[in-house]
Amino acid sequence: MAGHDVKDLSLGQEGRGRIEWADRDMPVLRAIRERFGRERPFEGIRIAACMHVTSETANLMRAMVAGGADVLLCASNPLSTQDDVAAALVTEYGVGAYAIRGEDHDTYYGHIHAALDHRPSVVMDDGADLLGVLHADRREGLFDVLVGTEGTTTGVMRLKAMEADGVLAFPIIAVNEAQTKHLFEDRYGTGQSTIDGIVRATNVLLAGRTVVVAGYGLSGRGIADRARGMGAHVIVLEVDPMRALQAVMDGHRVMPVADAARRGDIFITVTGDKHVLRGEHFEVMRDGAIIANAGHFNVEVDVPALEAMAVERTMPRGEIELFRLVDGRQIALLAEGRLVNMGAAEGHPASVMDMTFANQALSVEYAVRHGSGLERRVYVVPDEIDTEIARLKLRTLGLEIDQLTSEQERYLATWDEGT
């Protein structure tokens, strides 16, 4: 049996059912897994992955195993692990799994070190915690690694900072930058799953509420669109003038966080930065304000400041902590300020993760084949991979598109034909 630290191995059969249900809605990754099974591109490759331990991730691990890889998975978030899936990976699919939902800080990092004990030649990360520990504390393992992948905006920012500082030890494929990932996961996946997490945790009606969305990247746009679609009034917080202008043109109000703090009913952070909501904002929020985070790390909300301001803390529902302040106002924090779509719901739908994990699988294949020619920097997913995934996705949807005629191709390649 593969190495593991999971909640309960007897949950394996239940987890297998969940994994196979997700697989039904992941036809692109399934096609890649079938090809990997024939071609075995990862023979002799050891993979350590630090990702959300969900049914969708399990199907990515199955694809890597089908390709011949020796795989070990640990959690990239203490609250996102599905314990039955973690058990099934070990008992049903031969994948090492180190993940327990709700694990504490020491266990979380102990599991990361267990993944590095696997002596990986490929590292797959979500948030760059595994890559960060490898570069900071486990440098002896750097010599084994050919390449890494990173699947989050926050992680890519950290790795680009490492590249700029000259400390990045091997090439990284930024799966997060693939267009098929941006379009499906960031906008459609985050938009739906974040609202899902908030509604599951609170059972509040969004219609008529004022929802404040901090950050108007693709994820923020998806959240804002879906909140408005459910009848909410949306306020957007931004520091980028172009994004702020786009939010205005999309029909949302835009203002500084200090003004929005007085107006909002529900606050959702999705910036990738630290302390977007702070003590001075909690001081002016309405009684009953709800705070959720949709960014990868639990730093966007200054939770220690909120804890310091509270005179009483209660848990009225599973993923809600209620902070009562000295003046009697109450502020609700969802999922400990961690990813609300993972902590209070099931994350992105499988059909969304089909695109992201197809990018992960093909990026690792590309990196293994071309690793010796890659420099120690962050690369975007090659266009041919992105295009192929889009083509496969259209095919699985039963859709066809036109192709340029030879006359059209010649016209686009010349300059001398005008009106």
The percent range for helix content is: 40-55%
Mean pLDDT: 95
Low-pLDDT stretches: none
Number of helices: 17
Shape: globular
Strand segment count: 16
Instruction: Calculate the terminal CA-CA distance, rounded to whole Å.
Output: 70 Å
Provide the spatial order of strands within the biggest beta sheet.
1-4-3-2-5-6-7-16
How would a textbook summarize the main sheet?
8 strands, parallel
Our Rg estimate from Cα atoms comes to 22 Å
Strand content: 15-25%
> Which secondary-structure class do the elements indicate?
alpha/beta
In short:
The chain contains 17 helices and 16 strands. With 419 residues, it is of the alpha/beta class.
Explain what this protein looks like in three dimensions:
The N and C termini lie far apart (70 Å). The protein contains 17 helices and 16 strands. The strands form 2 sheets. It has an 8-stranded parallel β-sheet with strand order 1-4-3-2-5-6-7-16, sandwiched between helices. Strands 10-9-8-11-12-15-14-13 form an 8-stranded mixed β-sheet, with helices on both faces. The chain has 419 residues and is an alpha/beta fold.
Blueprint (SSEs and pairs):
Blueprint: E1 4-5, H1 12-23, H2 27-39, E2 46-51, H3 55-66, E3 70-75, H4 83-93, E4 96-98, H5 105-117, E5 122-125, H6 129-136, E6 147-150, H7 153-164, E7 172-174, H8 179-202, E8 210-214, H9 218-229, E9 233-237, H10 241-249, E10 253-254, H11 257-263, E11 266-269, H12 279-282, E12 289-293, H13 303-309, E13 310-317, E14 320-325, E15 330-334, H14 340-343, H15 350-370, E16 378-380, H16 383-396, H17 406-412
Parallel strand pairs: 1-4, 2-3, 2-5, 3-4, 5-6, 6-7, 7-16, 8-9, 8-11, 9-10, 11-12, 12-15
Antiparallel strand pairs: 13-14, 14-15
Helix pairs in contact: 1-3, 1-4, 2-3, 2-15, 3-4, 3-15, 5-6, 8-9, 8-15, 15-16
